Amino acid sequence: MTVDALTDVAGLRVGHATRNGDGWLTGTTVVLASEGGAVAAVDVRGGGPGTKETDALDPRNLVQKVEAVVLTGGSAYGLDSASGVMAWLEEHGRGVRVGPDPAHVVPVVPAACVFDLGRGGDFRARPDAATGRAAVEAAAGTGPGAPVVEGCVGAGTGATVGLLKGGIGTASTVLGSGITVAALVVANAAGSAMDPGTGVLYGELFEGRTTYPAPDIHEVALRRLAETAAKSPPPPLNTTLAVVATNADLTRAQAQKLAGTAHDGIARAVRPVHLLNDGDTVFTLATGTHTLPPQSGPLALNELLAAGADLVTRAIVRAVRAAESVDGLGGVWPSYGELYGEFEEGA
After folding, report:
1. CB count, 10 Å around CB of 339?
2. What SS3 state is found at 111?
3. Quick check: 83 and 134 in contact, CB under 8 A?
4. With 50 as the cut, is the pLDDT of residue 347 above it?
5. 344 band by pLDDT with thresholds 50, 70 and 90
6. Cβ(83)–Cβ(252) under 8 Å?
7. Among 188, 215, 218, 294, which lies 20 to 30 A Cα-Cα from 302?
8. Neighbour-count burial of 100, counting CB atoms closer than 10 A to its CB (0-12 exposed, 13-18 middle, 19+ buried)
9. What is the pLDDT of residues 158-180, one digit of tens each?
């Protein structure tokens, strides 16, 4: 049984730590691998990234596998949440072995942040090591294949996409080869996810949607967005983050290629993308339980490359549709669902 989420890749667990209210609108999300870790890679395309330990994922470097990946709010301040994840992993003896004692480990925890400072009203309300620890403990406390909560949770709590509220979204598929590919996205972009001419989400146009909101609904929505922009200008900095995972047995170079092509999925769902005010970053995790079809040779990777990009697009759509409106001290961001209520997904 699958749940159409990142956790359909056996061994991966997802946990959120969410802070909202009293000036807070932020959080942290952790993707936790099985003990022993997963092959990992990263590709950074945005012009303003905030990251930690991404150099360790270069295929030319030493570290072969990682135990967890951290996605967090709080801009560069929020990267402190990775320290809480490191501490938890060390306590459980998980990380790169660096000495004769099994407790002598250094957990390598890649992390990336989105800009959400001040969106709850307090600029200093941002994730810290305790937030990261809460997120990894939440991940560890879930069962195998558990559903993943979407919308305004974890690193997506304070996310926005243009003038709309953003959040967390996830999706998965099983390929004809039996290999599972999945994605989890924090949709927090400077660009827009919505076609201004029709009101349809760009990602749904890519997926083949042929129905559109009624003109009167779209007109009211555009007027509401204009009023919102006048009261609460679009944030100056953003970033979309993603983790693309598979149970395929990938080399580190193949995993890096998958991370790179997955950025195409962001470009299909958000326009414009990869701007200087974005820090768009995609991680790959490969658990290695299924081999690529040998008869296809190196081209067997193509099926995964195409699926990864498609799933990132679908995960962004789900993030925007799952988001809930925010009207608080830090700003006003209506949700897509509030604006186009009658125009439901699948209509």
Report:
1. 22
2. strand
3. no
4. no
5. low
6. no
7. 188
8. exposed
9. 999 999 999 999 999 999 999 99
